[in-house]
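Write out the bound-state structure for magnesium ion.
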Amino acid sequence: MMEQEAREVLKRLTEHGHSAYMVGGYVRDRMMNRPIRDIDIATSALPEQVAALFPHTVPTGLKHGTVTVVTEHCAFEVTTFRRESRYVQFRRPEKVEFIDDLHEDLQRRDFTINAMAMDADGNVIDPFGGLADARSRLLRCVGSPHERFREDALRMMRCIRFAAEYELEIEPLTWEALLWNAPALRYIAMERIRSELERMIEGTFPYRAMRLLLDSGLMQYFKTDPGWPMARWDAEKRGCLQALQGIQDNVVRWALLFRLMETSAQDARLSLRRLTFPRNKAEQICRPLTFHEWLERKADELAEASGEPAGSEAAPLKRWEMLFKEGAARFGKKTLRQWLSVHRAAQSAAAAGGCPTPPAWQSLIIRHGEEWLREVAIDSLKELAVTGADLLRFHAKAGPWVGSILERLLTDVAQGSVPNRKEPLLQLADKYVREMVNDA
Ligand code: ATP
Ligand code: MG
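---
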């Protein structure tokens, strides 16, 4: 359906005397049998000419020549053929020049596999040998790789992303130019670096991407240092990054990455801020790490109380269960499930060598954690059968005591020591209030 509607857009443009092609990622993904997400169109028509030919358009990026054409079921970015002449400080130019030649438009693109076009009849226009490179699985710059990376340093990050994601070898001259021009990356805004990193870590082959990133040394030239210690890791240690591959949830992938680097929650937060991650995503990534630190502290306390060295699993299983369920009340079941995924993956990475083996108590929790979580009835105050207002019957003056008793009740319910019903909870609250008054 998308391809059908794209062809209709091409036909309308060509019927009015313009040339028009599907370009870039679409042609690449079609030719490499990869799933198609969107279709970009390039045309000799000027933006206002495009807008005049279709009933429904949106002026998406007029300055760059892009008009979005909205069809019955789809939307296509239609961009006028252009030339990007002056590059300022290793970044793509602010100003572009519209031209009417497809060939020149393809020539400004980064890699040969990205520099192909297809007309409405399915004929492929491939002036730089993108098809042959795709077949021999080579990622190669269009023209001189030195020039291309000098014009726009972000292309080096794209190079690594495409090589990893599409399982391509980077052509030797392209790789050499990348190594040479790496320092120019310092001119690229961290937002753009972050977006490429997200696509690498969250893509199909995060391990390949990380390996290339480390081999190239690009990371040390980021405008802001994300503070990842792995630049100094040897090949064996890097092997543990393979664990990223098996993870579905992207938040878990990032949390695992920080776990493998043995980064604290606080340092992870700092790193994510430097990488300009949105606050919300950063917080999500840090939650399982924060829970981990809480758990480690509690594990030490447990070990001390039982007189055993920290890290042993000497405390009876029941106490680990209670601890884990208390964690569910504090951090939520979702965070604990993410923690389980992170540590299950870290454990298998450790078994394969390269990163430290977790202490015995962690393996214990990993083994039973999911089963324990299934028994946890509720994990938030919202679900508790009593509210703060209910508690004021014991003591008319509201204060921090209300919150702390609610937290205790929630933990009790999560641990299964009291049912989530009003009467038993109020009885228990009554007892807690008396204790509190006696203590005071
Ligand atoms: P994906 O959408 O999967 O990232 P894509 O190739 O479609 O892949 P876009 O960023 O959507 O990537 O860009 C569309 C096309 O524009 C690319 O295929 C490429 O031809 C060209 N292009 C994008 N960014 C650059 C760049 N920094 N330098 C040169 N050409 C680029
Ligand atoms: Mg695209």
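---
The first helix runs from residue 2 to 15.
Residues 24-25, 40, 92, 109-110, 114-115, 152, 154-155 surround adenosine-5'-triphosphate (ligand 1) (CB under 6 Å).
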